[in-house]
Amino acid sequence: MWNVLLSFSGLLALIQLLFLPFFPESPPYLLLQKGDKAGCLKAMKQLWGEGNYHTEFDDMMKEKAVTKGTKIMNVLEVLKEPSVYPQLSTMLLLLLSLQFCGLSATANLQENIIPYVSLGVAISELVSIIFCSSIIDRFGRRILLWGGYLLMALILVLLETSLLLSDRFLWMRYCSVILIFLFLIAYGIGP
């Protein structure tokens, strides 16, 4: 019943993808990253209804002024920063815990290959985190969500097909593993 389970997450992704265009961008993103004051106020009204949001707007403007001189660090600079070690440790612990989720058994592989698949899952998650952290400021969350959900939907269709054909063609099991890696990368980049 793995195909039903994987299809369920695809259905949820499709529902979120359909409703995403009706939501505005995040007000802090519009103001702090894009510098769009009018768009920020419009997004606040869309999200929170009519009202006076000058206090929140002023707080964001203060944050923008405080962070104006702050240097944006790349991934390697962040890894060298001791103040982020607790957060990195938590993230690595979560990534390692995903190794026990049973995802490696999805493709119905031989037992001697499953440790390599688990290693591939961890590497896929790490790649997606590094890639996403590198491009999120450039593209924003909305585009990454759209792209991630679209890729996830496509990959789940392909994964379902490869799982159905894996009994006829043994090489399809390896395609399933590759699709699982791609699904994890798409999930890490998007949602």
UniProtKB/TrEMBL annotation:
- Record's bilayer topology term: Multi-pass membrane protein
Example GO biological process term? D-glucose import
**Any transmembrane segments, and where?**
6-24, 113-136, 143-165, 171-190
Q: Which Gene3D superfamilies match?
A: MFS general substrate transporter like domains
- UniProt KW Membrane keyword: yes
Localized where? Membrane
Q: What is the lineage of its organism?
A: Eukaryota, Metazoa, Chordata, Craniata, Vertebrata
Quote the protein name from its UniProt record.
GTR9 protein
UniProt feature coiled coil, ranges: none
Chain ranges of the Major facilitator superfamily (MFS) profile domain: 1-191
One Gene Ontology cellular component annotation?
plasma membrane
Instruction: Keyword check for Transmembrane, yes or no.
Output: yes
- Annotated GO MF terms: D-glucose transmembrane transporter activity
Q: Which UniProt keywords apply?
A: Membrane, Transmembrane, Transmembrane helix
The superkingdom listed in its UniProt entry is Eukaryota
